[in-house]
TrEMBL record:
<dbReference type="GO" id="GO:0006508">
    <property type="term" value="P:proteolysis"/>
</dbReference>
<dbReference type="InterPro" id="IPR048816">
    <property type="entry name" value="Peptidase_M17_N_1"/>
</dbReference>
<keyword id="KW-0031">Aminopeptidase</keyword>
<comment type="similarity">
    <text>Belongs to the peptidase M17 family.</text>
</comment>
<dbReference type="InterPro" id="IPR011356">
    <property type="entry name" value="Leucine_aapep/pepB"/>
</dbReference>
<protein>
    <submittedName>
        <fullName>Leucyl aminopeptidase family protein</fullName>
    </submittedName>
</protein>
<dbReference type="GO" id="GO:0030145">
    <property type="term" value="F:manganese ion binding"/>
</dbReference>
<dbReference type="Pfam" id="PF21337">
    <property type="entry name" value="Peptidase_M17_N_1"/>
</dbReference>
<dbReference type="Pfam" id="PF00883">
    <property type="entry name" value="Peptidase_M17"/>
</dbReference>
<dbReference type="InterPro" id="IPR043472">
    <property type="entry name" value="Macro_dom-like"/>
</dbReference>
<keyword id="KW-0378">Hydrolase</keyword>
<dbReference type="InterPro" id="IPR000819">
    <property type="entry name" value="Peptidase_M17_C"/>
</dbReference>
<feature type="domain" description="Cytosol aminopeptidase">
    <location>
        <begin position="313"/>
        <end position="320"/>
    </location>
</feature>
<dbReference type="GO" id="GO:0005737">
    <property type="term" value="C:cytoplasm"/>
</dbReference>
<keyword id="KW-0464">Manganese</keyword>
<dbReference type="GO" id="GO:0070006">
    <property type="term" value="F:metalloaminopeptidase activity"/>
</dbReference>
<keyword id="KW-0645">Protease</keyword>
Length: 468
């Protein structure tokens, strides 16, 4: 993994190239004050001060050039305003000129250095650490580095093909985190999984032995501290099961473990930040495969909490594995539960790919998450956990169905299904229906796996449980 700590350094007056920031409202005045050489160079580069654009300013000596970047507001930097520079500037060290604090933009600078070249025989020629930003906001360097590393983890896990990122590999990622931070790892599989977590076992039992289902649990922190449970959907590949997906829908299903990637990254952030909580991370890791022993439409599954679930659609499997994991989390009486899942296409239809749907059983928690997301440029949008749609999950023969007969309110009914496994607990619970993917690149956010909702969740937890 990239050592992001080498990409942002304290500004102690060392040699560095200048970055001048301009915005649309002030560009003409700024340009008029520049020498003719600069005006000619910017005109030749067709630079007009637009946000997410930059140009090179020449100097008397060839090696003394500087950069000028267009941003939305030159006085108040945002998360992604320097990301285009971090992607495209030549190698070297840089400092932002002017009075604006660079702190908010540090994460974007780091995130822009991400590369996924594991499967390329020819690696990126430019060293990832070649562009260094100097900053006076020294206190914000370490937090930005932690966020970048966590985002890198999500991207790497999601981008890795399912052949190399199955349940065993998710277990290995959790084991690596546990070993690095003296956490405890417990993995349940085989007959014990079938007995105690029947829905997790049922969804994953058709997979090859090398991709056998399991529940991965990591615990860390002082048992006397408030208990926080983080749960991530770990469907490492989703064929749809016997209700098989079309090939076009199956193409990206390596990312169906994106919820697990978010859970691992959030656990890493909590542990590295030494927050005063008792952390319990749970990942139900499975492959929803097709074989003679696959669970079927019309089957009735037992659950850990004693309910029975009729299977209306085997492609609604994520909520099944999450149900057993949520039940286990509630048994330890946490005061906060967050789950992450690439759960429904309905959420993407409603909100698009960049905006995770948020459901919560507590208005204050939902407000904290929305506020944190807005402040840190990681937005989420609350959808209603409306009990009026519970009838869509009625079953004629079991306690509940895993999917309704219509396509209406798909994200809401999925969240209502999960809520059934939280009921009876006093925990404040929030569910993120996240895409975990970018179909189109943006500055600092390449096409492929990405963390959506991760920074909002961590900012909320950090505010609730600050270090003392």
């Amino acid at each position: 993994m990239t050592d992001y700590s080498d990409l942002i350094l304290p500004d102690n007056g060392q040699d560095a190239r200048s970055i001048h920031l301009v915005d649309a409202k002030g560009y003409d005045a700024w340009l008029s004050a520049r020498p003719e050489r600069d005006r000619a160079a910017l005109a030749a580069q067709k630079f007009a001060g637009k946000a997410a654009s930059f140009a090179i300013l020449p100097a008397e000596r060839a090696d003394d050039w500087a950069a000028v970047a267009g941003v939305a507001d030159a006085g108040t930097l945002s998360t992604w305003c320097l990301a285009k520079l971090a992607e495209g500037l030549p190698q070297g060290s840089y400092r932002v000129e002017g009075e604006a604090e660079t702190g908010p933009a540090l994460f974007g600078w780091l995130a822009a250095h991400y590369r996924f070249d594991r499967y390329r025989t020819k690696k990126d020629d430019a060293p990832v650490g070649a562009r260094v930003l100097l900053t006076k906001d020294i206190a914000r360097i370490e937090p930005a580095v932690r966020l970048a590393r966590a985002t890198h983890l999500v991207r790497d896990l999601v981008n890795t093909p399912a052949a190399d990122m199955g349940p065993a590999e998710l277990e290995a990622a959790a084991d690596s985190l546990a070993r690095a931070h003296d956490a405890t790892l417990v993995v349940t599989q085989g007959d014990t999984l079938e007995q105690h977590y029947p829905m997790i076992h049922a969804v994953g039992r058709a997979a090859a032995r090398s991709h056998a289902p399991r529940l991965i649990e990591l615990t860390w922190g002082n048992p006397a501290h408030p208990r926080v449970a983080i749960i991530g959907k770990g469907v490492c590949f989703d064929s749809g099961g016997l209700d098989i997906k079309p090939s076009s829908a199956m193409r990206l299903m390596k990312k169906d473990m994106g919820g697990a990637a978010h859970a691992l990254a959030l656990a890493q952030l909590i542990i590295e930040s030494r927050l005063p909580v008792r952390l319990h991370m749970l990942i139900p890791a499975v492959e929803n495969a097709i074989a003679g022993n696959a669970f079927r439409p019309g089957d009735v599954l037992a659950t850990r909490n004693g309910m029975t679930v009729e299977i209306g659609n085997t492609d609604a499997e994520g909520r099944l594995v999450l149900g057993d994991a949520i039940t286990k989390a509630c048994e330890d009486a946490p005061e906060l539960i967050l789950d992450f899942a690439t759960l429904t296409g309905a959420a993407r239809v409603a909100l698009g790919p960049d905006l995770p749907a948020l459901f919560a059983n507590d208005d204050a928690l939902a407000g904290e998450l929305a506020q944190a997301g807005e402040a840190i440029d990681d937005p989420v949008w609350r959808l209603p956990l409306w009990d009026g749609y519970e009838d869509m999950l009625k079953s004629d023969i079991a306690d509940i169905a895993n999917a309704g007969d219509s396509g209406f309110a798909g994200a809401i009914t999925a969240a209502l299904f999960l809520k059934k496994f939280v009921n009876g607990s006093d925990a404040h619970w929030a569910h993120f229906d996240t895409f975990a993917w970018r179909s189109a690149a943006k500055p600092g956010r390449p096409k492929g796996g990405d963390a959506l909702g991760l920074r909002a969740a961590f900012a909320m937890i950090e505010a609730r449980y600050p270090r003392v």
